[in-house]
Design a protein that fits this description.
This protein is 62% helix and 10% strand. A hairpin with a 2-residue loop joins strand 5 and strand 6. The radius of gyration is 53 Å and the shape is elongated.
Length: 658
């Protein structure tokens, strides 16, 4: 069915081209008649011959009109043939009556012998006069040398024949194509070294040093005239098959039809793939709708988180108030003790000054001791002032954080209010539009009343849209302020983390401190490595350092990704560690679960806090809840540290003078 439809399309296109071209020929736009009465083809300008007789140009047009040169050439040449027959038929000359009859004897038809397939060429009289001195073995050119000599004919294989005395001086060349074999034979014919020349020179014993060759046929296989050594016909019968040109052309056409059928099958398959792609696209659109639903659910969850954050901020504000009161009480008590201490020191100094004249005769050592005590008193005074300034700075920082948190909460509340107003205005605008459409649909029942209602609804819609544009501008301003406030909050958190890192470095009772997320912890590796490498000459510590370093490097590369996605509930997905990963299974089997768990723990922290860079990140951590510390946790911890230091720090003790 496909071939019939293709043929119909071909004929239709050829007829269209023929009609257009015939009109141009009849109008004289495409001249075909030369000034000397001969004809020319306007569609074959590349041909050297442009002077045809009527019969020649007609034969050329009909031959080209068969379609072998394409649709365009077929249509134009058919138009040319039709134009010649219709408009120039008077120039056709009838063939003169023959008066001489052919009475000579005619030769009989002789069929060409079948060719050997794959196509081969026979090579004879190869020089083999060189004799090996050791054993008298005849020597001649080998396969590689002959291949190089005849490389212009694209030889595929070369076979040289030998007997017990050595090189026979003959061989067979296998070619890739029929054209290569024909070119091989033609070159020897031009040099008068073909098959007929070989038969003649062999009869006359006049071969000489000439090399002979021709295209192998079935006659060479039969070797009825004993022209060839018996090994050549035997080789042709084993390696080749015998076919005439008609069969080979038929096989070529059959192969071409198979290729065309295969291409049509591939096109049909491609069309099927396109349809499958369309169905997949529809599936993707459905998944996008599911994702949009999930996004709405995420926004609802985000609103719940905002409410919870608001409650946490209220609780944090109350604790900050209590912490500030406690800190002021401790500072007042500390300043009171420092003032009493300063009064005592001042009284002692006055006593020392009153008794200075009486103590002039004391030893030099006593004078140095008094001088040292005076310097110690000055240092203590300076330390007290520095401590007081540091505590004042810390109070100012906590007060700043509190003000920034309150300001951010107020801005967030204002933003939520504006967003609610915007959404309400949008809903109101939609309702007015719907009413307006309903009123437009009812026009005709009471035109004046309906037109009045429509005008009122349009005015109301314009007013609502103006309010909506104003609210959109205010929402954009609030969003910008929210981003600025969030940046300020992050900066405050960074400063608080710096203080937390400073004051919890040596604190063993810390609840909130800095954790190096993504770091490979090897504390649990000691036991398995001691057990596995107890008899190692290098020591188990060396093996532990080597393996832990390799795994730490593996964790820092993006190629290590032993994760899989599983469904949690009906519409949620979660990424977890793939316990079937080959490297993790091998590590667990070789060193135990504790070593493997330390690797997976570090990987989880990397994927949570730095999945792109994969380097270690310092994170404030609440060791009580075992999760990342909030800003509230950090501020509470800093308040406890300041109160504990104030409680533990008393007036510096020193020896009183005797």
């Amino acid at each position: 069915m496909d071939s019939d439809s293709d043929g119909e399309d071909f004929e239709t296109e050829v007829e269209e081209i023929e009609t257009k071209t015939l009109g141009k020929l009849k109008e004289g736009k495409l001249p075909v008649l030369n000034s000397d009465g001969t004809f020319r083809c306007p569609f074959s300008p590349s041909k050297k011959k442009q002077s045809y007789k009527f019969s020649e140009i007609l034969q050329h047009a009909e031959g080209a009109g068969k379609g072998k040169r394409g649709i365009d050439a077929a249509g134009k040449h058919r138009a040319l043939a039709k134009h010649l027959k219709e408009d120039h038929k008077e120039r056709a000359r009838p063939q003169a009556e023959r008066t001489i009859y052919l009475d000579q004897p005619l030769p009989c038809r002789v069929e060409k012998p079948k060719l050997v397939v794959p196509h081969m060429g026979i090579l004879l009289n190869i020089k083999n006069t060189d004799i090996r001195v050791s054993d008298g073995f005849r020597q001649g050119p080998g396969q590689g040398e002959i291949r190089d000599k005849f490389k212009v004919f694209n030889p595929q294989f070369v076979d040289i024949f030998y007997d017990q005395r050595g090189h026979l001086g003959c061989g067979v060349i296998t070619f890739h194509t029929f054209e290569d074999a024909e070119a091989f034979e033609h070159s020897f014919k031009l040099a008068h070294c073909g098959r007929e020349d070989y038969e003649r020179d062999l009869r006359l014993n006049n071969l000489g040093a000439r090399l002979y060759g021709w295209h192998a046929t079935e006659e060479d296989h039969k070797n009825e005239d004993q022209l060839l050594h018996w090994k050549i016909p035997e080789f042709l019968g084993i390696k080749g098959d015998f076919k005439n040109l008609k069969i080979m052309i038929h096989e070529e056409k059959r192969l071409m039809k198979q290729q065309v059928h295969q291409l049509k099958s591939e096109v049909a398959k491609h069309r099927s793939d396109v349809l499958d792609s369309k169905f997949e696209l529809a599936g993707v659109k459905n998944r996008l709708e599911d994702i949009e639903n999930k996004r709405r659910e995420a926004e609802q969850e985000n609103a719940a988180l905002v409410e919870r954050h608001k409650a946490e901020l209220e609780e944090l504000r109350s604790k900050q108030v209590l912490s500030g009161q406690e800190h002021r009480r401790l500072m007042w008590d500390y300043n009171r003790r420092q003032a009493e201490k300063m009064k005592l020191l001042q009284a002692k100094c006055e006593d020392y000054e009153r008794n200075e004249q009486a103590q002039k005769q004391e030893s030099e050592a006593e004078r140095q001791r008094l001088e040292a005590e005076k310097q110690e008193m000055q240092q203590l005074t300076e330390q007290a002032k520095a401590q007081e300034k540091l505590q004042q700075d810390q109070l100012e920082l906590i007060k700043k954080h509190k003000q920034e948190t309150e300001a951010m909460e107020m801005r967030m509340q204002a933003e939520r209010t504006m967003l609610a107003k915007k959404q309400e205005s949008e809903l109101q605008s939609q309702r007015v539009v719907e009413k307006l459409e309903v009123e437009k649909g009812e026009v005709g029942k009471n035109d004046e009343e309906q037109q009045k209602k429509i005008k009122e609804l349009q005015e109301e819609l314009a007013s609502i849209q103006e309010d909506l544009e104003l609210q959109n501008g205010m929402v954009n301003v609030l969003n910008s302020k929210h981003m600025t406030t969030n940046d300020e909050l992050q900066d405050a958190k960074k400063e608080a983390v710096v203080l937390l890192k400073k004051y919890t470095a040596d604190d063993k009772a810390k609840k909130v401190s800095i954790k190096r997320a993504g770091e490979l912890r090897v504390e649990a590796w000691a036991g398995p490595f001691q057990k596995k490498f107890k008899n190692s000459k290098e020591g188990w510590q060396t093996h532990l350092a080597k393996v832990s370093s390799e795994w730490d490097s593996t964790l820092r590369t993006n190629e290590f990704h032993p994760l899989k996605t599983v469904q949690v509930g009906t519409d949620k997905w979660k990424e977890i560690i793939d316990d079937t990963d080959e490297r993790l299974v091998k590590l667990r089997k070789e060193f135990g679960a504790a070593v493997c768990d330390s690797v997976t723990t570090a990987l989880k922290e990397i994927m949570t806090y730095n999945p792109s860079g994969r380097y270690i990140v310092e994170v404030p951590w609440n060791y009580v809840t075992d999760q990342e510390a909030t800003m509230k946790d950090i501020v509470v911890q800093l308040g406890e540290i300041i109160r504990r230091k104030d409680t533990m720090k008393g007036p510096a003790k020193r020896k009183t003078p005797a």
